[in-house]
Write a structure and sequence with these properties.
Blueprint lengths: L25 H30 L3 H23 L13 E3 L4 H10 L2 H20 L10 H23 L11 H20 L8 H15 L28 H30 L5 H20 L5 E3 L1 H10 L4 H14 L3 H8 L3 H26 L3 H19 L9 H7 L3 H15 L8 H18 L17 H11 L1
Antiparallel strand pairs: 1-2
Helix pairs in contact: 1-2, 1-3, 1-11, 2-9, 2-11, 2-12, 3-4, 4-8, 4-9, 5-13, 5-14, 5-16, 6-7, 6-13, 7-13, 8-9, 8-10, 8-15, 10-18, 14-16
Protein backbone atom coordinates (compact mmCIF):
# COMPACT_ATOMS: atom_id res chain seq x y z
CA UNK A 1 0.00 0.00 0.00
CA UNK A 2 1.63 3.24 -1.15
CA UNK A 3 0.73 6.83 -0.42
CA UNK A 4 2.91 8.62 -2.96
CA UNK A 5 1.42 11.69 -4.55
CA UNK A 6 1.20 14.20 -1.72
CA UNK A 7 3.14 17.22 -2.97
CA UNK A 8 5.20 19.46 -0.72
CA UNK A 9 5.74 23.11 -1.44
CA UNK A 10 4.64 22.90 -5.07
CA UNK A 11 1.99 24.96 -6.80
CA UNK A 12 -1.36 23.21 -6.57
CA UNK A 13 -2.97 22.23 -9.86
CA UNK A 14 -6.73 22.07 -9.28
CA UNK A 15 -7.03 19.49 -12.05
CA UNK A 16 -5.24 17.01 -9.76
CA UNK A 17 -8.47 16.60 -7.82
CA UNK A 18 -10.06 14.99 -10.86
CA UNK A 19 -7.23 12.49 -11.38
CA UNK A 20 -6.89 9.23 -9.46
CA UNK A 21 -3.22 9.80 -8.70
CA UNK A 22 -2.88 13.54 -9.08
CA UNK A 23 -0.29 15.26 -6.86
CA UNK A 24 -1.99 17.27 -4.11
CA UNK A 25 -0.77 19.01 -0.91
CA UNK A 26 -2.05 17.42 2.29
CA UNK A 27 -3.68 20.64 3.49
CA UNK A 28 -5.55 20.92 0.20
CA UNK A 29 -6.63 17.29 0.41
CA UNK A 30 -8.07 17.40 3.94
CA UNK A 31 -11.31 19.34 3.16
CA UNK A 32 -12.25 16.86 0.45
CA UNK A 33 -11.54 13.93 2.75
CA UNK A 34 -13.61 15.46 5.55
CA UNK A 35 -16.46 15.98 3.09
CA UNK A 36 -16.62 12.24 2.46
CA UNK A 37 -16.48 11.44 6.18
CA UNK A 38 -19.37 13.78 6.97
CA UNK A 39 -21.42 12.18 4.19
CA UNK A 40 -21.22 8.73 5.79
CA UNK A 41 -20.41 9.30 9.47
CA UNK A 42 -23.88 8.71 10.92
CA UNK A 43 -24.75 5.83 8.57
CA UNK A 44 -21.49 4.13 9.55
CA UNK A 45 -22.34 4.08 13.26
CA UNK A 46 -26.12 3.64 13.26
CA UNK A 47 -26.11 -0.12 12.44
CA UNK A 48 -23.77 -0.82 15.37
CA UNK A 49 -26.03 1.06 17.77
CA UNK A 50 -29.17 -0.75 16.54
CA UNK A 51 -27.70 -4.26 16.76
CA UNK A 52 -25.96 -3.53 20.08
CA UNK A 53 -29.30 -2.42 21.53
CA UNK A 54 -30.97 -5.60 20.24
CA UNK A 55 -28.22 -7.67 21.88
CA UNK A 56 -28.55 -5.82 25.19
CA UNK A 57 -24.88 -4.82 25.27
CA UNK A 58 -23.63 -2.49 27.99
CA UNK A 59 -22.70 1.14 27.39
CA UNK A 60 -19.01 0.31 27.69
CA UNK A 61 -19.29 -2.50 25.14
CA UNK A 62 -21.26 -0.36 22.70
CA UNK A 63 -18.77 2.51 22.98
CA UNK A 64 -15.93 0.12 22.18
CA UNK A 65 -17.80 -1.17 19.12
CA UNK A 66 -18.41 2.38 17.89
CA UNK A 67 -14.66 3.01 18.10
CA UNK A 68 -14.05 -0.21 16.18
CA UNK A 69 -16.57 0.83 13.51
CA UNK A 70 -14.67 4.05 12.84
CA UNK A 71 -11.34 2.22 12.69
CA UNK A 72 -12.51 -0.51 10.32
CA UNK A 73 -14.23 2.01 8.03
CA UNK A 74 -10.93 3.84 7.66
CA UNK A 75 -8.95 0.64 7.11
CA UNK A 76 -11.43 -0.67 4.54
CA UNK A 77 -11.40 2.62 2.64
CA UNK A 78 -7.59 2.68 2.49
CA UNK A 79 -7.52 -0.89 1.17
CA UNK A 80 -10.06 0.02 -1.52
CA UNK A 81 -8.01 3.07 -2.49
CA UNK A 82 -4.60 1.37 -2.38
CA UNK A 83 -5.07 -2.37 -2.98
CA UNK A 84 -3.15 -5.09 -1.17
CA UNK A 85 -2.37 -7.81 -3.73
CA UNK A 86 -5.77 -8.49 -5.39
CA UNK A 87 -7.77 -7.09 -2.49
CA UNK A 88 -9.14 -3.62 -3.20
CA UNK A 89 -10.31 -1.87 -6.35
CA UNK A 90 -7.98 1.13 -6.55
CA UNK A 91 -11.08 3.30 -7.09
CA UNK A 92 -12.39 6.23 -4.97
CA UNK A 93 -14.69 4.06 -2.84
CA UNK A 94 -15.49 4.76 0.81
CA UNK A 95 -16.29 1.81 3.08
CA UNK A 96 -18.51 1.71 6.16
CA UNK A 97 -20.67 -0.53 8.34
CA UNK A 98 -23.51 -1.97 6.26
CA UNK A 99 -27.23 -1.61 7.00
CA UNK A 100 -27.87 -4.70 4.87
CA UNK A 101 -27.08 -7.06 7.75
CA UNK A 102 -29.05 -5.26 10.48
CA UNK A 103 -32.26 -7.28 10.27
CA UNK A 104 -30.65 -10.73 10.16
CA UNK A 105 -28.11 -9.86 12.87
CA UNK A 106 -30.81 -8.50 15.18
CA UNK A 107 -32.51 -11.88 14.88
CA UNK A 108 -29.28 -13.79 15.50
CA UNK A 109 -28.23 -11.82 18.59
CA UNK A 110 -31.72 -12.19 20.05
CA UNK A 111 -31.73 -15.96 19.50
CA UNK A 112 -28.12 -17.07 19.88
CA UNK A 113 -26.23 -14.10 21.34
CA UNK A 114 -23.69 -11.59 20.04
CA UNK A 115 -20.79 -14.07 20.06
CA UNK A 116 -22.57 -16.27 17.50
CA UNK A 117 -23.16 -13.22 15.30
CA UNK A 118 -19.43 -12.42 15.38
CA UNK A 119 -18.54 -15.99 14.41
CA UNK A 120 -20.95 -15.85 11.47
CA UNK A 121 -19.53 -12.49 10.33
CA UNK A 122 -15.95 -13.78 10.34
CA UNK A 123 -16.79 -16.95 8.39
CA UNK A 124 -19.15 -15.18 5.99
CA UNK A 125 -16.63 -12.42 5.35
CA UNK A 126 -13.89 -14.88 4.45
CA UNK A 127 -16.25 -16.71 2.10
CA UNK A 128 -17.24 -13.47 0.34
CA UNK A 129 -13.60 -12.47 0.08
CA UNK A 130 -12.69 -15.75 -1.62
CA UNK A 131 -15.70 -15.48 -3.94
CA UNK A 132 -14.61 -11.95 -4.80
CA UNK A 133 -11.26 -13.22 -6.06
CA UNK A 134 -13.17 -15.39 -8.57
CA UNK A 135 -15.98 -12.93 -9.32
CA UNK A 136 -15.59 -13.19 -13.09
CA UNK A 137 -16.98 -16.73 -12.97
CA UNK A 138 -20.27 -15.92 -11.23
CA UNK A 139 -21.08 -12.22 -11.21
CA UNK A 140 -23.14 -12.42 -14.40
CA UNK A 141 -25.73 -14.32 -12.40
CA UNK A 142 -26.56 -10.98 -10.77
CA UNK A 143 -28.55 -9.13 -13.41
CA UNK A 144 -29.78 -5.53 -12.89
CA UNK A 145 -33.30 -6.71 -12.03
CA UNK A 146 -31.95 -9.11 -9.38
CA UNK A 147 -29.98 -6.30 -7.76
CA UNK A 148 -33.03 -4.03 -7.92
CA UNK A 149 -35.44 -6.35 -6.12
CA UNK A 150 -32.82 -7.23 -3.51
CA UNK A 151 -32.26 -3.56 -2.62
CA UNK A 152 -36.03 -3.05 -2.47
CA UNK A 153 -36.43 -5.97 -0.07
CA UNK A 154 -33.64 -4.63 2.15
CA UNK A 155 -35.56 -1.39 2.54
CA UNK A 156 -38.75 -3.22 3.48
CA UNK A 157 -36.90 -5.42 5.97
CA UNK A 158 -35.53 -2.37 7.78
CA UNK A 159 -38.81 -0.48 8.22
CA UNK A 160 -39.76 -2.23 11.45
CA UNK A 161 -36.23 -1.64 12.77
CA UNK A 162 -36.60 2.11 12.19
CA UNK A 163 -40.08 2.14 13.70
CA UNK A 164 -38.87 0.30 16.82
CA UNK A 165 -36.07 2.82 17.29
CA UNK A 166 -38.53 5.67 16.76
CA UNK A 167 -40.55 4.37 19.71
CA UNK A 168 -37.50 4.21 21.97
CA UNK A 169 -36.03 0.81 21.15
CA UNK A 170 -37.37 -2.73 21.43
CA UNK A 171 -37.82 -3.69 25.08
CA UNK A 172 -37.46 -0.13 26.39
CA UNK A 173 -39.46 0.53 29.55
CA UNK A 174 -40.81 3.76 28.08
CA UNK A 175 -41.38 2.41 24.56
CA UNK A 176 -43.91 4.54 22.68
CA UNK A 177 -43.96 7.21 25.39
CA UNK A 178 -44.91 10.78 24.43
CA UNK A 179 -41.32 11.90 25.02
CA UNK A 180 -39.89 9.27 22.68
CA UNK A 181 -42.42 10.01 19.96
CA UNK A 182 -41.72 13.74 20.32
CA UNK A 183 -37.95 13.24 20.03
CA UNK A 184 -38.32 10.96 17.01
CA UNK A 185 -40.62 13.49 15.35
CA UNK A 186 -38.23 16.38 16.04
CA UNK A 187 -35.33 14.48 14.49
CA UNK A 188 -37.39 13.40 11.47
CA UNK A 189 -38.81 16.86 10.79
CA UNK A 190 -35.33 18.40 11.18
CA UNK A 191 -33.98 16.01 8.54
CA UNK A 192 -36.83 16.89 6.19
CA UNK A 193 -36.47 20.65 6.66
CA UNK A 194 -32.73 20.49 6.00
CA UNK A 195 -33.33 18.26 2.99
CA UNK A 196 -35.81 20.75 1.51
CA UNK A 197 -33.88 23.95 2.24
CA UNK A 198 -30.25 22.88 1.76
CA UNK A 199 -28.59 23.33 -1.60
CA UNK A 200 -26.42 20.97 -3.63
CA UNK A 201 -24.07 18.63 -1.85
CA UNK A 202 -24.88 20.06 1.60
CA UNK A 203 -27.99 17.87 1.49
CA UNK A 204 -25.59 15.03 2.35
CA UNK A 205 -25.58 16.38 5.92
CA UNK A 206 -29.35 16.25 6.51
CA UNK A 207 -29.17 13.16 8.75
CA UNK A 208 -26.29 14.65 10.76
CA UNK A 209 -28.32 17.86 11.16
CA UNK A 210 -31.33 15.87 12.38
CA UNK A 211 -29.19 14.07 14.95
CA UNK A 212 -27.77 17.34 16.28
CA UNK A 213 -31.18 19.00 16.61
CA UNK A 214 -32.66 15.85 18.15
CA UNK A 215 -29.76 15.55 20.59
CA UNK A 216 -30.15 19.15 21.75
CA UNK A 217 -33.90 18.63 22.19
CA UNK A 218 -33.22 15.45 24.18
CA UNK A 219 -30.91 17.36 26.54
CA UNK A 220 -33.67 19.88 27.30
CA UNK A 221 -36.17 17.04 27.83
CA UNK A 222 -33.81 15.19 30.16
CA UNK A 223 -33.56 12.16 27.87
CA UNK A 224 -29.76 12.07 27.51
CA UNK A 225 -27.82 9.63 29.66
CA UNK A 226 -24.41 11.16 30.37
CA UNK A 227 -23.07 8.12 32.24
CA UNK A 228 -20.92 7.19 29.24
CA UNK A 229 -18.83 10.32 29.87
CA UNK A 230 -17.88 9.28 33.41
CA UNK A 231 -14.21 8.32 33.90
CA UNK A 232 -13.66 8.91 30.20
CA UNK A 233 -10.10 8.50 28.93
CA UNK A 234 -8.61 11.02 26.54
CA UNK A 235 -7.23 8.29 24.28
CA UNK A 236 -8.12 4.60 24.05
CA UNK A 237 -7.62 1.96 21.37
CA UNK A 238 -10.49 -0.21 20.13
CA UNK A 239 -10.41 -3.73 21.54
CA UNK A 240 -9.27 -6.68 19.44
CA UNK A 241 -11.57 -9.72 19.76
CA UNK A 242 -13.80 -8.17 22.46
CA UNK A 243 -16.23 -11.06 21.88
CA UNK A 244 -15.01 -14.62 21.52
CA UNK A 245 -16.58 -15.92 18.29
CA UNK A 246 -18.95 -18.86 18.50
CA UNK A 247 -20.00 -20.80 15.43
CA UNK A 248 -23.53 -21.90 14.63
CA UNK A 249 -24.33 -23.37 11.21
CA UNK A 250 -27.74 -21.73 10.89
CA UNK A 251 -26.32 -18.31 11.75
CA UNK A 252 -23.39 -18.77 9.35
CA UNK A 253 -25.69 -19.73 6.46
CA UNK A 254 -28.02 -16.80 7.17
CA UNK A 255 -25.19 -14.27 7.24
CA UNK A 256 -23.43 -15.80 4.22
CA UNK A 257 -26.58 -15.37 2.12
CA UNK A 258 -26.64 -11.69 3.06
CA UNK A 259 -22.95 -11.43 2.14
CA UNK A 260 -23.96 -12.53 -1.36
CA UNK A 261 -26.54 -9.75 -1.32
CA UNK A 262 -23.85 -7.31 -0.18
CA UNK A 263 -21.64 -8.44 -3.06
CA UNK A 264 -24.51 -7.53 -5.39
CA UNK A 265 -24.56 -4.01 -3.97
CA UNK A 266 -20.78 -3.71 -4.23
CA UNK A 267 -20.88 -4.64 -7.92
CA UNK A 268 -23.32 -1.79 -8.49
CA UNK A 269 -21.38 0.79 -6.48
CA UNK A 270 -18.05 -0.11 -8.08
CA UNK A 271 -19.53 0.05 -11.57
CA UNK A 272 -21.19 3.37 -10.76
CA UNK A 273 -18.10 5.11 -9.35
CA UNK A 274 -16.06 4.05 -12.37
CA UNK A 275 -18.70 5.44 -14.72
CA UNK A 276 -19.49 8.74 -13.02
CA UNK A 277 -16.01 9.42 -11.64
CA UNK A 278 -13.72 8.19 -14.39
CA UNK A 279 -16.07 8.13 -17.38
CA UNK A 280 -15.36 4.52 -18.26
CA UNK A 281 -16.65 1.01 -17.66
CA UNK A 282 -15.34 -0.80 -14.62
CA UNK A 283 -12.55 -3.33 -15.14
CA UNK A 284 -12.92 -6.96 -14.13
CA UNK A 285 -9.96 -6.72 -11.76
CA UNK A 286 -11.49 -3.68 -10.05
CA UNK A 287 -14.80 -5.47 -9.49
CA UNK A 288 -13.08 -8.57 -8.17
CA UNK A 289 -10.85 -6.56 -5.84
CA UNK A 290 -13.75 -4.49 -4.56
CA UNK A 291 -15.80 -7.57 -3.60
CA UNK A 292 -12.74 -9.23 -2.04
CA UNK A 293 -12.12 -6.09 0.02
CA UNK A 294 -15.75 -6.18 1.14
CA UNK A 295 -15.39 -9.73 2.40
CA UNK A 296 -11.96 -9.80 3.99
CA UNK A 297 -12.41 -6.40 5.63
CA UNK A 298 -15.74 -7.61 7.04
CA UNK A 299 -13.95 -10.61 8.56
CA UNK A 300 -11.45 -8.21 10.14
CA UNK A 301 -14.37 -6.11 11.35
CA UNK A 302 -15.72 -9.18 13.11
CA UNK A 303 -12.40 -9.52 14.92
CA UNK A 304 -13.03 -6.01 16.30
CA UNK A 305 -16.52 -7.06 17.39
CA UNK A 306 -18.12 -5.01 14.61
CA UNK A 307 -20.59 -5.67 11.81
CA UNK A 308 -19.73 -6.28 8.13
CA UNK A 309 -18.64 -3.37 5.97
CA UNK A 310 -19.54 -2.44 2.41
CA UNK A 311 -19.13 0.36 -0.11
CA UNK A 312 -21.23 3.46 0.62
CA UNK A 313 -23.45 4.76 -2.16
CA UNK A 314 -23.80 8.24 -0.68
CA UNK A 315 -20.07 8.67 -1.25
CA UNK A 316 -20.47 7.42 -4.83
CA UNK A 317 -23.12 10.12 -5.15
CA UNK A 318 -20.65 12.68 -3.82
CA UNK A 319 -18.14 11.63 -6.48
CA UNK A 320 -20.89 11.99 -9.09
CA UNK A 321 -21.57 15.57 -8.00
CA UNK A 322 -18.04 16.84 -7.39
CA UNK A 323 -16.05 14.64 -9.82
CA UNK A 324 -13.28 14.57 -7.18
CA UNK A 325 -11.68 11.13 -7.57
CA UNK A 326 -8.20 11.82 -6.18
CA UNK A 327 -7.31 8.84 -4.02
CA UNK A 328 -5.01 10.83 -1.74
CA UNK A 329 -7.75 13.37 -1.00
CA UNK A 330 -10.19 10.63 -0.01
CA UNK A 331 -7.45 8.83 1.95
CA UNK A 332 -7.10 11.85 4.25
CA UNK A 333 -10.72 11.34 5.25
CA UNK A 334 -10.05 7.67 5.98
CA UNK A 335 -7.10 8.57 8.20
CA UNK A 336 -9.19 11.15 10.08
CA UNK A 337 -11.87 8.51 10.66
CA UNK A 338 -9.23 6.15 12.05
CA UNK A 339 -7.91 8.84 14.38
CA UNK A 340 -11.44 9.43 15.71
CA UNK A 341 -11.50 5.74 16.66
CA UNK A 342 -8.91 6.49 19.35
CA UNK A 343 -10.98 9.31 20.90
CA UNK A 344 -13.51 7.76 23.32
CA UNK A 345 -15.39 11.05 23.57
CA UNK A 346 -16.71 10.52 20.03
CA UNK A 347 -18.13 7.09 20.83
CA UNK A 348 -19.46 8.32 24.20
CA UNK A 349 -21.40 11.08 22.46
CA UNK A 350 -23.10 8.62 20.12
CA UNK A 351 -23.66 6.18 22.94
CA UNK A 352 -25.57 8.85 24.89
CA UNK A 353 -27.85 9.52 21.92
CA UNK A 354 -31.47 8.51 22.71
CA UNK A 355 -32.63 5.74 20.39
CA UNK A 356 -35.78 7.68 19.51
CA UNK A 357 -33.61 10.39 17.94
CA UNK A 358 -31.71 7.77 15.98
CA UNK A 359 -35.01 6.24 14.85
CA UNK A 360 -36.33 9.59 13.65
CA UNK A 361 -33.32 9.97 11.37
CA UNK A 362 -32.95 6.39 10.17
CA UNK A 363 -36.59 5.69 9.32
CA UNK A 364 -36.31 8.21 6.47
CA UNK A 365 -33.06 6.57 5.36
CA UNK A 366 -34.77 3.18 5.18
CA UNK A 367 -37.65 4.61 3.16
CA UNK A 368 -35.14 6.02 0.70
CA UNK A 369 -33.63 2.56 0.28
CA UNK A 370 -37.01 1.30 -0.94
CA UNK A 371 -37.33 4.21 -3.36
CA UNK A 372 -33.79 3.55 -4.55
CA UNK A 373 -34.83 -0.04 -5.30
CA UNK A 374 -37.85 1.17 -7.28
CA UNK A 375 -35.58 3.45 -9.30
CA UNK A 376 -33.30 0.51 -10.05
CA UNK A 377 -36.29 -1.56 -11.23
CA UNK A 378 -37.19 1.27 -13.60
CA UNK A 379 -33.60 1.43 -14.84
CA UNK A 380 -33.59 -2.33 -15.49
CA UNK A 381 -36.68 -1.86 -17.67
CA UNK A 382 -40.28 -3.08 -17.52
CA UNK A 383 -39.97 -6.03 -19.85
CA UNK A 384 -42.35 -8.91 -19.20
CA UNK A 385 -39.43 -11.00 -17.95
CA UNK A 386 -38.27 -8.36 -15.47
CA UNK A 387 -41.83 -7.83 -14.24
CA UNK A 388 -42.17 -11.57 -13.58
CA UNK A 389 -38.86 -11.75 -11.71
CA UNK A 390 -39.70 -8.73 -9.55
CA UNK A 391 -43.27 -9.81 -8.81
CA UNK A 392 -42.35 -13.41 -8.04
CA UNK A 393 -39.34 -12.69 -5.83
CA UNK A 394 -40.93 -9.86 -3.84
CA UNK A 395 -44.25 -11.63 -3.30
CA UNK A 396 -42.68 -14.90 -2.18
CA UNK A 397 -39.68 -13.47 -0.36
CA UNK A 398 -41.59 -10.83 1.60
CA UNK A 399 -44.99 -12.52 1.71
CA UNK A 400 -43.84 -15.84 3.14
CA UNK A 401 -41.92 -14.16 5.98
CA UNK A 402 -45.16 -12.49 7.06
CA UNK A 403 -46.53 -15.99 7.74
CA UNK A 404 -43.41 -17.75 9.00
CA UNK A 405 -45.37 -20.90 9.94
CA UNK A 406 -45.42 -21.74 6.25
CA UNK A 407 -41.86 -23.02 6.72
CA UNK A 408 -42.88 -25.48 9.44
CA UNK A 409 -42.28 -28.59 7.29
CA UNK A 410 -38.72 -27.57 6.43
CA UNK A 411 -35.58 -28.48 8.41
CA UNK A 412 -34.47 -26.16 11.20
CA UNK A 413 -31.58 -24.83 9.09
CA UNK A 414 -33.93 -23.72 6.29
CA UNK A 415 -36.36 -22.14 8.78
CA UNK A 416 -33.61 -20.21 10.52
CA UNK A 417 -32.37 -18.76 7.22
CA UNK A 418 -35.64 -17.92 5.46
CA UNK A 419 -38.55 -17.80 7.93
CA UNK A 420 -37.80 -14.30 9.24
CA UNK A 421 -35.38 -13.04 6.60
CA UNK A 422 -37.17 -11.67 3.57
CA UNK A 423 -33.92 -10.51 1.93
CA UNK A 424 -32.60 -14.07 1.72
CA UNK A 425 -35.88 -15.29 0.23
CA UNK A 426 -36.07 -12.50 -2.33
CA UNK A 427 -32.44 -13.03 -3.33
CA UNK A 428 -32.85 -16.79 -3.80
CA UNK A 429 -36.10 -16.56 -5.79
CA UNK A 430 -34.77 -13.71 -7.96
CA UNK A 431 -31.57 -15.57 -8.85
CA UNK A 432 -33.44 -18.81 -9.67
CA UNK A 433 -36.07 -16.96 -11.72
CA UNK A 434 -33.35 -15.09 -13.58
CA UNK A 435 -31.71 -18.40 -14.48
CA UNK A 436 -34.77 -20.42 -15.52
CA UNK A 437 -37.07 -17.90 -17.20
CA UNK A 438 -36.58 -17.70 -20.97
CA UNK A 439 -34.79 -14.62 -22.22
CA UNK A 440 -37.55 -13.80 -24.70
CA UNK A 441 -41.05 -13.81 -23.26
CA UNK A 442 -44.01 -12.98 -25.50
CA UNK A 443 -44.54 -9.23 -25.72
CA UNK A 444 -47.88 -7.89 -24.61
CA UNK A 445 -49.35 -4.43 -24.26
CA UNK A 446 -47.96 -3.90 -20.79
CA UNK A 447 -44.43 -4.64 -21.95
CA UNK A 448 -44.73 -2.34 -24.96
CA UNK A 449 -46.00 0.45 -22.74
CA UNK A 450 -43.22 -0.17 -20.20
CA UNK A 451 -40.50 -0.22 -22.83
CA UNK A 452 -41.86 2.96 -24.41
CA UNK A 453 -41.83 4.72 -21.06
CA UNK A 454 -38.32 3.43 -20.39
CA UNK A 455 -37.14 4.81 -23.72
CA UNK A 456 -38.59 8.19 -22.78
CA UNK A 457 -36.82 8.10 -19.42
CA UNK A 458 -33.52 7.15 -21.06
CA UNK A 459 -33.88 10.01 -23.53
CA UNK A 460 -34.51 12.48 -20.73
CA UNK A 461 -31.52 11.23 -18.74
CA UNK A 462 -29.20 11.31 -21.75
CA UNK A 463 -29.68 15.07 -21.88
CA UNK A 464 -28.80 15.57 -18.24
CA UNK A 465 -25.13 14.74 -18.64
CA UNK A 466 -22.89 12.19 -17.05
CA UNK A 467 -24.26 12.53 -13.54
CA UNK A 468 -27.56 11.04 -14.63
CA UNK A 469 -25.79 7.77 -15.33
CA UNK A 470 -25.40 7.14 -11.61
CA UNK A 471 -27.91 4.95 -9.89
CA UNK A 472 -27.49 4.12 -6.20
CA UNK A 473 -27.11 0.39 -5.80
CA UNK A 474 -26.53 0.03 -2.07
CA UNK A 475 -28.82 -0.29 0.90
CA UNK A 476 -26.87 2.54 2.45
CA UNK A 477 -27.83 5.04 -0.26
CA UNK A 478 -29.31 7.96 1.67
CA UNK A 479 -30.95 10.83 -0.20
CA UNK A 480 -28.55 10.35 -3.14
CA UNK A 481 -31.15 10.82 -5.85
CA UNK A 482 -32.40 14.06 -4.28
CA UNK A 483 -28.85 15.31 -3.95
CA UNK A 484 -28.17 14.69 -7.64
CA UNK A 485 -31.32 16.54 -8.64
CA UNK A 486 -30.36 19.50 -6.47
CA UNK A 487 -26.87 19.61 -7.93
CA UNK A 488 -28.37 19.92 -11.41
CA UNK A 489 -30.67 22.70 -10.23
CA UNK A 490 -27.83 24.60 -8.60
CA UNK A 491 -25.57 24.39 -11.67
Amino acid sequence: MAFKGFSKGKAFDHASLFQLDGSIPILRAIPYGVQHILAMFVANLAPIMIVAAAAGLSDVQTSSLIQGAMLIAGIGTLIQLFPLWRIGSGLPIVMGISFTFVTVLCGIVATYGYNVAIGAIIVGGILEGVLGLFAKYWRRLISPIVAAVVVTSIGFSLLNVGAASFGGGTGAADFGSPRNLLLGSIALVSCLIFQVLAKGKTKQLSVLFGLIVGYVAAIFLGAVDFSAFQNLQLFAAPSLMPFAPEFNLAAIVSVTVIFLVSATETIGDTSAVSLVGLGRDVKERELSGSIACDGFTSALSGCLGCLPVTSFSQNVGLVAMTKVVNRKAIATGAVIMMLCAFLPVVSAMFQSLPEAVLGGCTIMMFGNIIVSGFQMVARAGFSQRNILIAALSLSIGIGFTQVSDIFVIFPELVRSVFADNCVAGVFLVAVIANLVLPKNIAIDGAQIEGETRQSELDSEKSGEGEEAAFEPLSADAVFVENEKTSSHSAS
